[in-house]
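Colleagues,

Please find the record for the two-part complex below.
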Amino acid sequence: MPCEKENLIVSIDCVSWSIETLVNCLYFLILIMLTTELLEQLEAEFRGQLSPSAQQQLHNALDELPQGQEEAATYRRLWVALAAWQAQTFQGQAESWEADHTYHDDAELIELYLRQELHPANRSRVEHRRTEDPVFDQQFRHQEQLLEGFTAVHSTEFQSQVTAWEQALPAAAPTARVMPLRQRWARVLVIAAGIALLLVAGVNWLADKPHSDVALAEAYYRSPPMGNTLGGAAEEKIAYLQAFDAAHQAMRTKDFTTAAVAFQQLSLLPPPTTFSSDDLKYYQDNIGWSLILARLANRDVSGDFAQRLELIATDETHTYHQQAIQLQDDLAAFWRK
Amino acid sequence: MSNYKADEQRLRDLATGQETKWRLFYEDMRSPFRLFFLKYTGLDSATVNVLYQDAVVVLHRKVSNGDLVAPLKSSLKTYLFGVGKMLYRKQNGQIAKWEDEIPEIAISPSVEDKIAREERAIWVTHLLNQLDEKCQDLLRKVYLEDYTMDMLAEELQLSGAGAVRKRKFDCLNRLRKLVN
């Protein structure tokens, strides 16, 4: 009969057992005393880190032990359960992070709809929901108007930039010809609409903004090189870089509300698929940091502001890691005044 | 020379198991992942969120196990999207029109039944709770928080990685004794 676990725990009672039971009990004790080296190899095999020859040696060693393979199976079961425990714990963490994001999901969904980047089934869902959910429908209409306003402002800024580039080029060797995006009268209308919408969206920050908020943001802000990335770039990349330039243009002209909204939009925008990993890091780090500065200048330091700043400050690989730590210090000192 | 140096640095950060690193990764990838699956599948927004969480959990497992290490053959984003695609196919049994934006990758997530995973986690937590606090703490650090032996030696003020390894397997043996 096999020696039970209870026998092992109270093995002192073995003296009263039969020879057979004692032998079984001894086997069990030997198994429980599997060497650290053997367990280490077992775990390495479980993780797929053992060479075929080492695996063979391990199995030979296990075969020589009474119930060696059964014991190995029990340890594997434990490791599977420990991995499940880790995954389950991580899943719990991810669910807590998720709660911070779902608030923006509708806005993102609407934006994807307006950019015609939704699967037909999801387009239908959005359209259906608009008919049944007045709050969602209102949010949709507001966002649609806001996007039109941005497009108008954006087109105008881009037009100005293109004109400047054209003037800078030698007349005999044009590399690109950019057609006006809209008729002049239409442009004026959409610019007006855009500006009005931005005003409606809450652009009354200037009147009561304390100077020190702006001063702090401006002290940290560095404008990146602009407008030198168009040649031969794909349409998707051009649009992304235009939006990036427009957001920084707003920062440079101290239109911090527009800048904050633009950087927020950029942070939600998927980067071009043609970006290299270096490009990706450069732009995403810059957008994340610039959003913080724009929000600070705009006195929008509630909500997830501190959390965003903390994420950069604790990420040693982030381009603005050091600046974020300094800004945290400055803000701490600043708020005490 | 690797084309994914920034991703490899990020992978090393993630391999430390630090919550802040994973949270940042989670936040960076969430929107692009949602966009992709809302565009190319008929999954609704809430279901895509669940798919995203599942994909990140699988990637977390891959990184924790050391299955995904430098040099990378794709960006981490590509790996994550690849896991998402495989989960989608497994759960929905169909192939969406991906338009080859995301290349196929050689990573096969061991998609386990969530209920089975939860049961296993409950089972091992029950066993761990029967151990003394020192063993609980050590096994938690090794198997939950991905501490290296050197990190543990420093934290537990032991002579070195060898001493930690011995203590770890002592604790594992005690855990094994609790298994019926």
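Chain B has a mean pLDDT of 86.

Comments are welcome before we finalize the supplementary table.
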